Structure formats: C-alpha cells, structure tokens
Amino acid sequence: MSRLIVISNRVSAGGGAAGGLAVALMAALRENGGIWFGWSGGRTDHFTGHINFHIEDDVRTATIDLEDQDIEEYYNGYANRTLWPLFHYRIDLAEYERSFAGGYRRVNERFAETVLPLIEAEDHVWVQDYHMLPLGADLRGHGVTNRIGFFLHIPWPPRKLLMTLPEAREMVEMLFAYDLMGFHTQEWLESFCDFVREELGGTISEDYVATLGDRSLKLIACPVGIDAREFAELASSTTAHETCQRVKDSAVGRALMVGVDRLDYSKGLEERFLGYERFLTEHPEERKEVVLLQIAPPSRGAVESYQRIRTTLEGLAGRINGAYAGLDWVPIRYVNQAYARDALAGVYRASRIGLVTPLMDGMNLVAKEYVAAQDPNDPGVLILSRFAGAASQMKEAILVNPHSAEELSDAMLQALVMPLEERKRRWTTMMEDVQRRDVMWWLKEFTAALAACRQHDEPEQIEGLPSDGAVEAQ
To answer: Is there a catalytic annotation at residue 65?
Structure first.
C-alpha cells in the first residue's frame, strides 16, 4: 500500500492536537506509513529549509520554522486576512495586499521545496486546506508526478464573491495541478464548478470531473466527521462525569445552554448573544430558568478584526448581565479559555441545549461532538445554523438563520419545552449518521478516490502566480 504524505499548515511535534481530524490522519499514517509535514508554529531569523523530525506513537512528523515576514504575510496576512473572510462571505473584512499574496506564494514554494526530498515514487500526497491552495502546482513544478489530493475544510464562496480576489482566476487554474479536490458539501462543490464554467471556460462531466485545457480534476463532496465512538466514551470518562456534575451543580437546577467556539467573527457569537437577549425580553417567565455558558478561546490575536470581536462580545455580555442579572442569577457566563476534550464532553452532556450558530462555517465538528456526548436516555437539543456545513447532514437539529434574533429566540424556547420523546427521536437520527459517517469514513472515502486517480507519467507545467510579491491586480 502506498505511503501517505499529509501536508498541512500546522503540525505539532506529537502529530498535532488530539482532535478528531488529527486522530484520523495519525491513524492513516500509522496504517500506511508516511509523514505529516507542516509548519511547527515556531519562528526562525533566517529560513534554511531545516526539517525537525519527530516520531511519536509510530507517526513521523516533519516540521519547519518560518521567518517573521513569512508569518505576517502568509499566515496573518493572505490566509487569515484575505482568504478566510472572503471564503466565509465577509468581503467587507477581506484585505487585498500584494505583499500578502507574494508572501503566501513564497511560503507555499518553500513548503514544496522542503518536502520534496521526503516524497517517494509511490507515495500519495494529501494537502489540507486553504493555506495550501497553490502547493500542488508548486510540487508539479518540481517534477512531482505522484497522485496529489486536496481537501478544503472551509466553504467555497459563490463565483461573484470569489471574483473580488484579484488573483482568483490564476488561483483556481493552479488547483488543476491536483488530481482530486474534496469539499464538505455538494453546494460548495457546485460553486466551484460554476466558477470553472463561467470564469475559466472549463467543462464539468456528469461524474464531476472538471476539465480545463488538457488538465482534469476529480471533484467529490465528502463531509468530515468525528470519532463518534471515542467521543461518546470520553463523555463517560471520570473527568467528563466530574465536569458534568460540577456544571450542573453550578446551574442550580436551571437549564444550561452551551456554545463552544473559537473567538472568530464567522461563528455568529454577537448574533447569538443578541438572540439570547431577545429571548430574555420576549419570555420573562423563562428568566432565571436558563443560563447561557459561552466558551470562546481567543485566536489569531494579531489580527485586528479578532481584537474587535472580543471587545464587542465583552461589551454585550456586560450589557445583558447588567440588565437582567439578579442577586442569585447571571444570564451569561462568558469564558475566554480552552478546555480539554474530555472536560468539554462533560459540559456538552450537562447542557440541555447546544448552540452551534455560525454565520458561515466549513463543517463545525462541535455540532457532531455535542450529539455524540449526549445521554441517550435524556439527550439535549442541538440548535444549528443553516449556514454550517453540518446542516446538510443534521436535519433533525433545530435549524435557524443566525442573522435573525427572532429565530434564535424562538428556537431557544422550542428547545426548552421540547418533550423527551421528541428529543430522543431527533438525537437518535443524528447520532446514527454521526456514527456512520465518522472521521474514518471520511478518510477512507477520500483516500480511495485519490488512489483511483491516474498516476502522472510526467510532471505538469502549471502557470501560476509569481512568488516575489509582484501580483498584478485584475
């Protein structure tokens, strides 16, 4: 069986965070052999291409350090101030700077040059996410003929939105260096097809093979999952049990609503707080019967838009608590720190309602973790944004438009008064799908599709964007 070379933006020395995606990729690497390659998160004064190798639990990782300019232009800049807001439909926050685009291309080229000696003839290469859109073309430019797959973990924006990116056409053309490209949902796959047809003049076959000139790219919709069995076991662990009991005791018999989100403007946290405020206003009889616990670990603190969202949420939480709190009750508990997965499993199980209400999101595995953590005899209710990738699978959740405070308020009331039998029915249907299409299902679906792609006989020449920062605006 072919080895697997996984390439992603970040890799920790021990194989990454112990989340579901990292667990699956590590399992695939243990089974097939191979290497997980990416940025260590560390800095260096001068990039030399030095690779830090590490082996843990039979998984070999290879990481590099980046210069401060690389981090600012590639990561803080193009990845998180240009692509991230644009792909989440926030063109009002997207920043288009030539230096960002140049740094992005430079770092991808550095990744390609550095990983090149690690790739053997029969290896399958699997590139992860929006940080690495041009990496396949860079590898082809260095003579790599291996099968190369790419999976996008965030939404693919509609054609007109993507065209606001100055280098959109060139970027999409470079994706044809890959053999296989995966999306979470059919909707985002279709958006990609629309761009290829309308902006590039390409064609799409009935089985979703995109063709541009003499190059072809197989497209699949393949939603990522979690390790449902493992997470359900976590929810029954000693730590989860103790956390669950502590949270329940602190609620003093009140129903708990919980949200667990990285502090990000795409997660709809401001809108969630406003929806909860609307609920408290419209249903005074339910005040003091419910508590909202929002866990929001900070992220990307160097980016100004993330600093603004933190300030906004702190102000909203203070305003709502000031208006509605009593001597023995505070409506919002707002926590800016991360917790281990077993503790979070206990928090999920303690809660009557799980709030997953992003304005736009890739998959959002919190929705699946919430379902997996529930007590089958007394499950909670999931309130889920229609604009999360998980909504295409989890139709038994209460689906809402997170932009509407009225819908959020109505959903909160519906969830609070929902009879036990209905809660069980909805949970059972969602849990069956979470278990069936788990993270290992996703892994096998993608790697099998990649293995079915043809092997390249000779390297392709892919014309792409310049790597020196001289990117011409359209």
So the answer is: no
